[in-house]
Amino acid sequence: MEGGLVEIGADGRIVAVRAAGHAAHREMARRAAEAGRLVTLDGLLIPGLVDLHVHAPQYPQLGKGLDQPLEAWLQRYTFPLEARYADRMFARRVYRRLVADLLAGGTTTALYFASRHVEATCELADACIAFRQRALVGRVVMDNPGQCPDFYRDGSVAEGVAATRAVAAHIAAHPANDGWVRPVITPRFLPSCTDDMLRALGHLAGECGCHVQTHCAESDWARDYGQARFGRSDVETLDRFGLLTRHTVLAHGNFITGSDMALLARRGGAVAHCPLSNAWFANAVFPLRAALDKGVRVGLGTDVAGGPSASMMGAMRMTVAASRMLCDGVDPDRPAAGRGRPGSGVDMMTAFHLATAGGGDALDLPVGRFAPGQHFDALRIDPDAPLGTMRLWGDESDEDLLATALYTASRANITHVWTGGLHAG
């Protein structure tokens, strides 16, 4: 929308959007200029990116141990690292760097798994508020002695529920939290929780109406574990425990079935599609197009550190690539007609929607669009940034310009980030 205007109210929400040819455009620009409120920007302005799956304490683990299967990776690398967050100062150092880095990369809203430490999880919430990043922050709950190490698990159901309440109370009482951060109930995944814990967290979700996040049918191992223990799919099990609601976001979902998708759509739950980490740990490609066609709400996630990149730009690119591999197939020894799943591909504009408006819709937050009533969370992409990776040749259409940015821009091209109408970071 070259020459377009976005009017932002005092509350940081968008009041009006006017294209250059709109009848009210000139008057709107004149009034803003006279009031000293007209800001002119070169480059591209796009909505802020929404990351639906970030393991905040795993940021120091980025790129490590990725040759291991998921269950071994958790036991050998992840749980020992997350146990270090008993040190509040360590948590503060990591989380402030993480939030600043994500904002610099254009992630203006994030759905976070924290560790099982109350004080450290509160540090993550505090960092988001301080840097003006919208966030949902959850203290992970895990009490199953058969799947969680002795040094890193909740001692009882009462402990897990009380700790979840304590984090929610801290977030609600924070004097500077003007809607920036919300709590989220976070059973790590079905294998890590006892039945009693899942039942208690389901009751808590019904009581407080909080968001819920967990992993779902991520890998062969995780899917098979759930079937063996519960005799039903992960989606059906979560529904049974009251953890599948309009405010639920399920990470991965690679092995959900058509009936699972139908149940998800009925309940209004969403999926955080994490295409990069799926390449390492999932054993399959998430059937994104099928889920969208069945009315499932879907957004994108980086899955730091299962995904070795915190870039939502990278997540968009991998979304397109993964869908094309599922569509066409990958085994050259199979005949072309039986190699893939036809009709599974998505394009970059679909991926862009999922990374912005799709993520906002999954969280029921007014973010991800330039439209009246939405928060003005945005980023400026400068094609000419000195260390950037975009190259333009002067003959690009608006569509080509956006596609070039989404496929080739790097963090250096993101020169400004706003949340709530003000500079973030």
Short synopsis of the structure:
This protein has 425 residues and is of the alpha/beta class. The chain has helices at residues 25-34, 70-83, 88-104, 118-131, 157-173, 195-208, 220-230, 234-240, 258-267, 275-281, 288-293, 312-328, 348-363, 398-408; strands at 5-8, 14-18, 44-47, 49-55, 107-113, 134-138, 140-141, 181-187, 211-216, 248-252, 270-273, 297-300, 378-381, 414-419, 422-423. It is built from 14 helices and 15 strands.
Tally of DSSP helical segments: 14
CATH fold group: TIM Barrel
CATH H-tier superfamily: Metal-dependent hydrolases
Q: Into which percent range does the helicity of residues fall?
A: 40-55%
Q: Compute the number of strand runs.
A: 15
| Overall body shape | globular
Q: Would you list the SSEs in sequence order as H and E?
A: EEHEEHHEHEEHEHEHHEHEHHEHHEHEE
Beta-strand fraction estimate: 15-25%
What is the count of structural domains? 1
CATH architecture type: Alpha-Beta Barrel
CATH class designation: Alpha Beta
Radius of gyration: 22 Å
State mean pLDDT (0 to 100 scale): 95
Distance between the termini: 26 Å
Largest sheet: 9 strands, parallel
Extract low-pLDDT stretches.
none
Helix/sheet category: alpha/beta
GO cellular component, one term: cytosol
GO molecular function, one term: guanine deaminase activity
Protein name: Amidohydrolase family protein
Pfam family, one: Amidohydro_1
